[in-house]
Design a protein that fits this description.
Helix content is about 70%, strand content about 5%. The relative contact order is 0.13. Pfam families: 7TM_GPCR_Srh (PF10318).
């Protein structure tokens, strides 16, 4: 085996962890999806459709990653997997759009109608369509980049010749034009992310400064809604942002160091594990939803109590079973009948 390829044992362990943990997390995430769909609270009915979209795309992205287990060795500038990477990129675009929808909806509900960029009606729909156009533009650019790499006639470097044995692979050749395309794709998709951060900060400021005429109950509800929004936006997204930035740093490191970086096995292992961490995004998002929603937690605990009750029907039924005791005395025998559990 070439020294730049990670061991087969490590590859097998990563694939196995994706399959086992991915199946468990998929079931858990689907349960949270059902909680969102079946929630009877009318106050957040409009918001839940955006939350469901976010949960759906997050679950789909993690399920896709668990299914084909992509390996990214950024120091070797190579990506290999058993399926098309465009499926995963499409799901990531859906996650980003859904995050924007959730935050923008909360912003429109909290800020006064005359505030800047608070739109309703057709203007509101136009904003959502514009975000979709940004996502499609970024995906189109990513597809072009991947196609240009796949159609490239450049010779595969000897240090990564082993990648030809993989079912699907992508080699990131050096090219100023490709780097510009990649920068454009990141800018198009990163722009809405920056807007999301600005809107969240604006919401936090509005909660602290405004709503002086609102009732204490309304203030409490809105503050809890914004806190929930911040938690659901920041905590899970760290499982996407930190790995992506770290892998990009490794890639830049490889460009500067060259072949020595490709032969650094420690960096290869770190690069692969960073991408594996991204598959935890939907699971962490599900946990934050449960942590920030008392009604969902109550539903889960109620369901667990019902399951526990169904799991012990025999012990409950035995409590009403008659018990017959035959007693003989010197004068005459007689029979006592009592209920089990009674003295």
């Amino acid at each position: 085996m070439n020294t730049t390829e990670v061991s087969h044992e490590f590859q097998y362990a990563v694939i196995l962890s994706h399959l086992v943990c991915g199946s468990i997390f998929l079931l858990f995430n689907m349960i949270v999806c059902l909680l969102i769909v079946l929630d009877s609270d009318s106050r957040g009915k409009a918001y839940r459709k955006y939350l469901l979209s976010l949960q759906f795309f997050s679950t789909l992205a993690d399920a896709g990653m668990s299914a084909y287990s992509p390996f990214v060795q950024a120091n070797c500038r190579v990506i290999y997997a058993n399926s098309s990477l465009m499926i995963y990129f499409t799901c990531i675009a859906g996650i980003g759009s859904s995050y924007f929808y959730c935050v923008y909806y909360r912003r429109n509900m909290l800020l006064p109608r005359e505030s800047l960029f608070v739109f309703h009606g057709w203007k509101y729909g136009a904003v959502l369509i514009a975000i979709q156009i940004c996502a499609v533009t970024g995906l189109t650019n990513v597809y072009y980049i991947i196609s240009s790499y796949n159609l490239s006639t450049e010779k595969i470097p000897a240090t990564i010749s082993w990648v030809e044995q993989k079912a699907a692979y992508l080699i990131l050749y050096e090219s100023e034009f490709r780097l510009l395309n990649m920068t454009f794709a990141i800018s198009v998709t990163g722009g809405p992310s920056c807007i999301i951060v600005v809107m969240i900060l604006q919401l936090v400021f509005e909660i602290k400064r405004g709503m002086l005429t609102a009732s204490p109950a309304t203030k409490k509800y809105q503050a809890r809604a914004v806190f929930s929004l911040i938690m659901q936006g920041t905590v899970p997204s760290m499982f996407l942002i930190i790995p992506v930035i770290s892998v990009y740093v490794i890639y830049v490191y490889a460009l500067n160091v060259g072949e020595d970086a490709a032969r650094n096995m420690t960096v290869s292992y770190i690069s692969i594990l960073l991408i594996t961490v991204m598959s935890l995004h939907a699971f962490v998002h599900s946990l934050t939803i449960l942590a920030c929603s008392p009604s969902y937690r109550k539903t889960v605990f109620s369901l667990l109590r019902r399951i526990r009750g169904l799991a012990h029907p025999a012990s409950l039924s035995n409590q009403g079973t008659p018990r017959v005791v035959h007693v003989e005395s010197s004068s005459a025998p007689f029979t006592l009948t009592s209920q089990a559990g009674q003295r």
